[in-house]
C-alpha cells in the first residue's frame, strides 16, 4: 500500500519534470540503513529521501542528511531536538497525550513502550507525573523474546489485572501493537501525505526557477571531509515551506521540520467500536465534542459481583447480635446496608460488602502520598464502590467520583451532658428579667407620685364630709389620696386586688386606667411564662458555640485523626477555625482519636473537660443511645454531604447517581434515617437532644414565695409593735398633760372629754380614744423604768 502511494506520486513528479524539459531523477526509497548503501544512493544523484527509520538507524540517517544537506522525509516517530534536513510527517503526541491524561484525571496507569521514541515520551510523562503526583508503572515490552512473546504478553496482562491496573497507555512499534492489540497499524495516510509534500516542494522550486540539478556541485560522501550538496539547503527550505491539506489534516512545518498547527482526534472505545469524542490542537488543547463520556452503561454487571467497601460505624453499618449465624451481607445491618441493597436493586447488580481493613475513611499521607481507608480501596482498585458515611470533599473528588449527596450534614460539637441546675429560691422571678423587675418598681413609685400630685391639684378630688361630734356639726374638705394611700392604691391594682378608695377626678382616673392596663399586660405575661419556668428543669451548658470553645482553655477539643473533619480545620482560612486547628495540632496529650467510638468514650469519661467535633448526623444518633449522657451544642460549623463513591471513570457512576436521586424523590432516604436514628432511639421521644424535661413542682421551685410570706408576716408584726409602742407613749403623754390641766383648772376638764384621733394619710372623723383603763395600763407599762 505504501509503495503504491509512492509510485503514484513518483509518476506524477517525473511527468511534471519531463514536461519542464529538466532532467531530474527520483530513485527508489531507501530501506537499508547502512551507511555505504545510503552513500551509494546519494552518489547516484538523489534530490530527497523518503523512508522510515528505527532506533538503530536513526542516528546514521540524521548524521548523513545533516552532513550532505539531503532532506529526509519520514512518517516515523518524531525526534527530540532540532534536526536539520529532517522533515517529520508524524505529529508529536506528547502534548495530546498529557492533555488526555489530565482530562480523564488519570493519576494511576501503566505505560507500555518498546523503543527510543516510547522512552522519550515516557520521560516527559514521568516528569509531569512527578509534578502532578501521578503513579506511573513503566514496562518495556521491547525486550520480550519473539519465540515466547505470546506467553509473555499473557503473563504481563495477568500481572496488570492482579494489580488492578485498568488504565494502560500503549506506545509501541506497529509489530508490537499488532501482537498486543491484534490490530494492524497503518501508516498509509502519512506516506501519501509525505509524497504530496515532496511534490508541492519540487513544484515550488520549479516555479521559482531554482536550479537544483546535480550537474554542478553534487557533493561527495566519500571525501574526507564529506562535501555537502550545494542545492540541498534550497530543497530543505522548500519542503519546510509547504502548506497543504492532506489525509492527516493540515500539513505545515516549523523551522526545524516538525509538524505544527495540526489536530489530533480523540477516540474512545465503546461497545460498538471506536467513537470520536473530541480533538486536541496546540491552541485549544483538549476539546470535547461529545459530553456523554461516561454513559449509563452497566452492561456486563449482571454476571459480576460488585465489591462494596464500607466501614463499621453505627448506625450506618453494624454487626448483628447473632452475626455468627449468618454469612456475607446478612451479617450486617444499618442505614448503609439498607442503602446498598436499594442501590443494587435499582442498578441491577450483585454486590458483596467488604469492611475496610484499616478502619479509616480515607486521607492521603503527606509524605508517601498514598491514600488509605475506603478512598484508597477505590483508588487502587480493591473495591468498585463505597457505600458509607463518606464526606464529599475537594481532595477526594480529585481521585474518585461521588454521587449526589444522600445525606446533608455539618460539623458539630459533642459534649458531656451537664448536670441539671437546681432551681433557685427566687426562681419564681425568672419569667421576667432583672431589668423588667427594676422598671416595674420605678413605674410603681412613679405612678403613685403622679396620682398623688394630680389628686392634690385637681379640685374634683376634694370633697366635703358632714359628721357629728356630740352636739357639734362641722364641714371639712378632705382628699383621700395622700402619698400613702396613693402607694396603697397602686399596689392593690398591681396585685389585682383593689382597695376601698378610687379616684374621683378625670385626671386621677386616667392615671388609674393606664396603670391597670400596664399591670394587666405585665401580669398576663408573667403568668404565661411562670409555668414553663417552674416546671422545666434546665441544664447550663459550659459552651454554646465554636467561639466559646476557641476562647477558653479548660475544655479540650479534637477530631477524628483521619477524616474530612480534620482536613476541614487544617485547610480552613477562617480565623476562628485556624485558631482552633493551631490549638488541636499542638495540644498535649493529643486531642485526636482513632475512631468515633473512642472520641465518644473520651467525652463521657472526661467529666465535661473534652469536646468532640464530628458530623452532626453521628452526633444526633449518639444522643439517642444509652446512657444518654452526651448532647449536641450550637449550630453546625459547615455544610456538606455524604455521597456514594466510585473510581474515576467507572461505568457505575451515572447509574448510582440516578438511583440516589430516585430514592430521594421517593422519600426512602428520609424513611431510612428515621428508622435508624429515631425509631430505634433509646432515650425517649425527647432523647438526648432535649435539654429540658418537664416535671412536677417541688418545694425548691417556690420556696422564695414562702420566704416572702413569712418575711411579710414578721415585718407586719414588727411594724404593729412599733405602732403600738408609739401610740401608747403618745397617749401616755396626752393623758399626763390632761391630768395636769385638770388639776390646774377642774372646770375645763369637762370640755375636753373627746380627743382628736390619729390620722394617717387623709383627714377622718373618728370617736376619740376613751378606753381609759387600757390607756392608763399601757401608759403605766411604758413608763416603768
From TrEMBL:
Gene3D superfamilies: 1.10.287.70, 3.40.50.2300, Periplasmic binding protein-like II. It is found in: Postsynaptic cell membrane. GO terms for cellular component: postsynaptic membrane. Coiled coil: none annotated. The record marks 364, 570, 662 as: Interaction with the cone snail toxin Con-ikot-ikot. InterPro entries: ANF_lig-bd_rcpt, Glu/Gly-bd, Iono_Glu_rcpt_met, Ionotropic_Glu_rcpt, Iontro_rcpt_C, Peripla_BP_I. Residues 305-679 form the Ionotropic glutamate receptor C-terminal domain. The chain crosses the membrane at residues 432-454, 514-536, 704-726. Belongs to the glutamate-gated ion channel (TC 1.A.10.1) family. This is Glutamate receptor. It comes from Cyprinus carpio (Common carp).
Amino acid at each position: 500500500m505504501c509503495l503504491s502511494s509512492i509510485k503514484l506520486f513518483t509518476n506524477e513528479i517525473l511527468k511534471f519534470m519531463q514536461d519542464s524539459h529538466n532532467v531530474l531523477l527520483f530513485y527508489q526509497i531507501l530501506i537499508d540503513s547502512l551507511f555505504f548503501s545510503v552513500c551509494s544512493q546519494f552518489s547516484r544523484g538523489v534530490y530527497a529521501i523518503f523512508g522510515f527509520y528505527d532506533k538503530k538507524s536513526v542516528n546514521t540517517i540524521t548524521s548523513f542528511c545533516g552532513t550532505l544537506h539531503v532532506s529526509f522525509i519520514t512518517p516515523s516517530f518524531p525526534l527530540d531536538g532540532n534536526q536539520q534536513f529532517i522533515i517529520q510527517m508524524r505529529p508529536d503526541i506528547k502534548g495530546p497525550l498529557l492533555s488526555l491524561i489530565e482530562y480523564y484525571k488519570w493519576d494511576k496507569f501503566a505505560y507500555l513502550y518498546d523503543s527510543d521514541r516510547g522512552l522519550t515520551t515516557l520521560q516527559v510523562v514521568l516528569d509531569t507525573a512527578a509534578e502532578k503526583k501521578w503513579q506511573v508503572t513503566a514496562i518495556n515490552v521491547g525486550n520480550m523474546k519473539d519465540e515466547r512473546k505470546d506467553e509473555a504478553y499473557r503473563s504481563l496482562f495477568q500481572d496488570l489485572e492482579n494489580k488492578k491496573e485498568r488504565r494502560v497507555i500503549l506506545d509501541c512499534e506497529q509489530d508490537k501493537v499488532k501482537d498486543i492489540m491484534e490490530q494492524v497499524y497503518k501508516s498509509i495516510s502519512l506516506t501519501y501525505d509525505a509524497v504530496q509534500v515532496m511534490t508541492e516542494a519540487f513544484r515550488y522550486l520549479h516555479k521559482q526557477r531554482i536550479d537544483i540539478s546535480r550537474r554542478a556541485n553534487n557533493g561527495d560522501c566519500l571525501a574526507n571531509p564529506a562535501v555537502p550538496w550545494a542545492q540541498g539547503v534550497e530543497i530543505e527550505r522548500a519542503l519546510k515551506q509547504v502548506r497543504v491539506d492532506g489525509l492527516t489534516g493540515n500539513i505545515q512545518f516549523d523551522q526545524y521540520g516538525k509538524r505544527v498547527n495540526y489536530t489530533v482526534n480523540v477516540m474512545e472505545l465503546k461497545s460498538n467500536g471506536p467513537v470520536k469524542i473530541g480533538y486536541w490542537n496546540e491552541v485549544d488543547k483538549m476539546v470535547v465534542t461529545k459530553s456523554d463520556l461516561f454513559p449509563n452503561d452497566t452492561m456486563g454487571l449482571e454476571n459480576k459481583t460488585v465489591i462494596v467497601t464500607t466501614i463499621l460505624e453505627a448506625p450506618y453499618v453494624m454487626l448483628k447480635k447473632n452475626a455468627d449465624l449468618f454469612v456475607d451481607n446478612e451479617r450486617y445491618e444499618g442505614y448503609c446496608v439498607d442503602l446498598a441493597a436499594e442501590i443494587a436493586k435499582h442498578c441491577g447488580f450483585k454486590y458483596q460488602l467488604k469492611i475496610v481493613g484499616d478502619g479509616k475513611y480515607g486521607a492521603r499521607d503527606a509524605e508517601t502520598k498514598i491514600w488509605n481507608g475506603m478512598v484508597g480501596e477505590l483508588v487502587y482498585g480493591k473495591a468498585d464502590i463505597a457505600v458509607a458515611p463518606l464526606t464529599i470533599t475537594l481532595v477526594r473528588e480529585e481521585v474518585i467520583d461521588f454521587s449526589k449527596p444522600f445525606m446533608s450534614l455539618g460539623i458539630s460539637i459533642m459534649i458531656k451532658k451537664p448536670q441539671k441546675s437546681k432551681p433557685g429560691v427566687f426562681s419564681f422571678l425568672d419569667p421576667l428579667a432583672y431589668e423588667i423587675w427594676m422598671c416595674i418598681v420605678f413605674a410603681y413609685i412613679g405612678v403613685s407620685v403622679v396620682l398623688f400630685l394630680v389628686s392634690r391639684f385637681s379640685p374634683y378630688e376634694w370633697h366635703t364630709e358632714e359628721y357629728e361630734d356630740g352636739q357639734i356639726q362641722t364641714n371639712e374638705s378632705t382628699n383621700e389620696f395622700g402619698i400613702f394611700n396613693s402607694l396603697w392604691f397602686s399596689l392593690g391594682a398591681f396585685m389585682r386586688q383593689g382597695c376601698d378608695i378610687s379616684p374621683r377626678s378625670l385626671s386621677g382616673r386616667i392615671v388609674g386606667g393606664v396603670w391597670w392596663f400596664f399591670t394587666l399586660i405585665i401580669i398576663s405575661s408573667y403568668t404565661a411564662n411562670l409555668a414553663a419556668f417552674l416546671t422545666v428543669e434546665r441544664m447550663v451548658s459550659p459552651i454554646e458555640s465554636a467561639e466559646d470553645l476557641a476562647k477558653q482553655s479548660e475544655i479540650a477539643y479534637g477530631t477524628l485523626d483521619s477524616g474530612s473533619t480534620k482536613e476541614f480545620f487544617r485547610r480552613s482560612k477562617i480565623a476562628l477555625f485556624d485558631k482552633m486547628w493551631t490549638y488541636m495540632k499542638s495540644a498535649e496529650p493529643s486531642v485526636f482519636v482513632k475512631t468515633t467510638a473512642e472520641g465518644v468514650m473520651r467525652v463521657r469519661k472526661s467529666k465535661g473537660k473534652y469536646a468532640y467535633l464530628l458530623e452532626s448526623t453521628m452526633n444526633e444518633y449518639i444522643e439517642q443511645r444509652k446512657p444518654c449522657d452526651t448532647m449536641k451544642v450550637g449550630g453546625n460549623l459547615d455544610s456538606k454531604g455524604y455521597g456514594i463513591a466510585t473510581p474515576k471513570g467507572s461505568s457505575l457512576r451515572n447509574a448510582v447517581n440516578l438511583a440516589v436521586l430516585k430514592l430521594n424523590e421517593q422519600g426512602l432516604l428520609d424513611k431510612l434515617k428515621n428508622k435508624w436514628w429515631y425509631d430505634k432511639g433509646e432515650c425517649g421521644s425527647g432523647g438526648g437532644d432535649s435539654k429540658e424535661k418537664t416535671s412536677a413542682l417541688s418545694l425548691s421551685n417556690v420556696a422564695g414565695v414562702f420566704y416572702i410570706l413569712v418575711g411579710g408576716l414578721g415585718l407586719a408584726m414588727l411594724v404593729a409593735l412599733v405602732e403600738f409602742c408609739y401610740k401608747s407613749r403618745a397617749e401616755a403623754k396626752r393623758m399626763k398633760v390632761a391630768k395636769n390641766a385638770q388639776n390646774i383648772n377642774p372646770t375645763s376638764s369637762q370640755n375636753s372629754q373627746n380627743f382628736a384621733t390619729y390620722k394617717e394619710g387623709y383627714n377622718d372623723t373618728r370617736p376619740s380614744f376613751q378606753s381609759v383603763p387600757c390607756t392608763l395600763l399601757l401608759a403605766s407599762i411604758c413608763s416603768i423604768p
